[in-house]
Automatic annotation (TrEMBL):
The gene is CCNB1IP1. The keyword Ribosomal protein does not apply. It comes from Electrophorus electricus. One of its GO terms (molecular function) is ubiquitin protein ligase activity. Residues 10-52 form the RING-type domain. InterPro entries: CCNB1IP1, Znf_RING. Signal peptide: none annotated. This is RING-type domain-containing protein.
Length: 111
């Protein structure tokens, strides 16, 4: 699947670093490298450097491991109802699609 070949890039203006290791994702569908995330989101109120949204909620910013361990993957959704699991997957895929589309990659080649 072509979408999987794409690496997310830091959304910080002029950074565009390929994300690896840890990244910071926001409720406004932006994602940042560890350096910019930890710098920008340590101050309050946190403001998204890509779109200026206020990120005041507890879960508006998450620091996420991009290549989680097998153990984490085996356990993170365990116990949730199937519709909840699908809902989470759906939202995470929407985030991915948004990122890839906003980088103008992949979708232009679709008939
Ligand atoms: Zn960055
Ligand atoms: Zn944003």
């Amino acid at each position: 699947m072509a979408l999987c070949d794409y690496s997310l890039l830091c959304n910080f203006p002029k950074c565009r670093t390929k994300l690896s290791g840890f990244a910071w994702a926001t409720a406004c569908s932006h994602i940042f490298c560890d350096q910019h995330g930890s710098g920008e989101f340590s101050r309050t109120p946190a403001i998204c450097p890509a779109c200026s949204s206020a990120l005041s909620g507890k879960l508006d910013i998450v620091r996420t491991e991009l290549a989680p361990s097998e153990q984490y993957k085996a356990m993170v959704l365990v116990g949730l109802r199937p519709e909840t699991i699908l809902d989470i997957s759906h939202r995470a895929l929407a985030f991915w699609t948004y990122q890839v589309c906003s980088a103008y990659i992949c979708f232009s080649s679709r008939g």
